[in-house]
Structures are given as C-alpha cells and as structure tokens.
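Practice problem 4.
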C-alpha cells in the first residue's frame, strides 16, 4: 500500500473526505530549478491541499487524523494506462502510416489520431472503473489529531 496521512473534512456513508497536504522533494533534488515541480513550488501550488474520497468502515468524525492507502497494483496499472498506452498508440499508428508509405503529414496525422483514440479509450475506462472499490483509496487507520483551538468546523 502507498500511504498518505490527512485529516477528515467530511463524512459520507461508507466513506470520508480526507484533506491531504501535498509535499515536495525539491529540497533534496539536485535539479531544483530545472524542472516543472520546482516552478510550481515557487508559485505556491505545493501549499494547496488535495481532497480525496476514501472508503472507510471506521467510525470517524470531522477533524480526525487518518492514514489512507492506495494499492500499488492499482496505481501502477493506472499510470501505465494514462501515460504508456497513449504513447504506444501514437507511435504504433504513426509507424503503420509510415510503413504504408504515407506522406509525412499523414504520418503525423495518424499519430495524433492514434493518440486521440487512445485518450478516448482511457477516458471511457476511467469512467467505467471509477466506482470499483478495488481501485479506491481506503482508510487504513486513524491517528491522533488535535485541532487548533481557533479552528471551527461547519457542516
């Protein structure tokens, strides 16, 4: 399991909304200023928090600290589907057009069409599997969390 800690911000039936703080490893990276993540950090994007719906059978309330987890297999399959499949579709469709001795403009067009078709397949697959409990984050455990005295929670 890949784990992330957070705080419960809302409770739903069989699940909770968890606010996680996005971290960055830029301080330990030698390419600090040469990548997009460093630019995003300087713009303050790393301070934004992410909301995640996590399945839970624990009795939790707003403000509780939790650790949520995602299965490695689900993450790796999702990453391959989103990143690798469109790239392979682009290259294969362009290679097929090139093997058919198409003009360069048609080879590029075939690559773009292969990418677009693969994107549609990824989109449909993600919509079909969005409610699959095997692919959803789950609350692994509750942690001790003390809310600041000046913080109020309204529902």
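Answer key:
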């Amino acid at each position: 399991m890949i784990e992330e800690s957070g705080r419960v911000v809302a409770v739903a039936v069989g699940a909770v909304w968890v606010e996680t703080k996005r971290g960055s490893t830029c301080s330990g990276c030698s390419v600090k200023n040469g990548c997009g993540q460093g630019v995003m950090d300087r713009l303050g994007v790393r301070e934004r928090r992410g909301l995640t719906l996590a399945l839970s059978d624990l009795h939790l309330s707003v403000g509780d600290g939790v650790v949520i987890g995602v299965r490695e297999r689900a993450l790796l399959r999702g990453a391959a589907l989103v990143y690798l499949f469109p790239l392979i579709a682009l290259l294969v469709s362009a290679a097929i057009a090139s093997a058919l001795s198409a003009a360069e403009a048609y080879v590029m067009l075939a690559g773009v069409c292969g990418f677009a078709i693969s994107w549609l397949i990824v989109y449909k697959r993600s919509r079909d599997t969005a409610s699959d409990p095997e692919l959803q984050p789950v609350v692994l455990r509750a942690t001790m969390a003390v809310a600041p005295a000046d913080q109020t929670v309204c529902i």
